[in-house]
Amino acid sequence: MTGSAAHAAQAAQSVLQPATATADSIFEIGVVLTIGAALIFLGVMTLLALSLRRRPPSRRPSRASERLWIVGGGVVFPVLVLSALMVYASVRTSGLTTRADLADGLVIAVTARLWWWEVRYRDPASGKDVVLANEMRIPVGRPLTLALDSADVIHSFWVPELAGKIDMVPGRLHHLHLEARQPGVHRGQCAEYCGEQHARMALHVVALAPEEFDAWLAAQAAPAAAPPDDLAQRGREAFLHERCNACHTIRGVSEESDLGPDLTHVGSRLFIGAGTLPTHRGTLGGWIADTQGIKPGARMPSFDRLDGQTLNALATYLDHLK
């Protein structure tokens, strides 16, 4: 596993480590609501403990005093605390839906599919779309908007360190606004059960310095690099001969289908199979040969009929696509 992939594998998926202003707000709301709920719980448990104490008849409270405790502690106190929490949460969350200033912002289209993520950018230099799968790279310190939709069933986009959950509903476009504070790798996950491989539908978001992001996007806009040696060239020929291009695009080689992930620069991604395996030649070969064993139900057959030399050549070629 490469260093960057190892870092990504260790990336936290936790609301307790917010990395944006939006995530800060959600974390703060969660803490305040937890404290409020704890106060109500402790108050009710205190009343329960007091009610269980044995007292002599001469020290028992009057009926009026009992009613006062029940109404005050069991009704008035919870209502006041819950009302205060409701007002606080309403005011605090109102800012989360405020549209970001996108004068210099970036819009990234994210489409959820069974069971992977399609991520689409518009290259400002060429005006063409740049398409990735299961990985999103964003610039630090720049406001951006995610345009979220689904191609099949209801999914839910959730990268807890960056923002809250947003459902992705077929036929509807939802937006999420965020701005990363510092470089890092953040793991996301589909948070709505969507079928057999719901648990293996991860997304990694890599926050880069602005100049590094610009260079990366320009490189991603370029077509696939030519094979550097005979082995990779045989892999390119195998890609076409085995009709991998019936589902996958490699720009500059074959662009006739978008049923599966775009593989133009697949070798530069941290993971394959929506976070299932780190990307390198060995895992690429294993994925091609035994897709259904690694991720049962994935919409790609296992190519276990390929001989070892062809499989090695094909994996070498894909790994070369940086």
Question: What would you note in describing this structure?
Answer:
The structure is a single chain. This protein is 37% helix and 19% strand. The chain has 8 helices and 12 strands. The chain has helices spanning 3-9, 21-51, 63-94, 210-221, 230-241, 281-289, 291-294, 308-320; strands at residues 106-113, 116-122, 129-133, 135-139, 144-150, 155-158, 166-168, 174-178, 184-190, 202-208, 271-272, 277-278. Strands 3-2-1-5-8 form a 5-stranded mixed β-sheet. Strands 4-10-9-6-7 form a 5-stranded mixed β-sheet. The radius of gyration is 26 Å and the shape is elongated. The model has no long low-confidence stretch (mean pLDDT 87).
Q: Low-confidence runs (pLDDT<50, min 5 residues)?
A: none
Strand content: 15-25%
Query: Which structural class do you get from the secondary structure elements?
Result: alpha+beta
**Series of H and E elements:** HHHEEEEEEEEEEHHEEHHH
> What shape does the CA trace take?
elongated
> Helicity range of the residues?
25-40%
CATH topology of the largest domain: Immunoglobulin-like
What would the average pLDDT be, to the nearest integer? Answer: 87
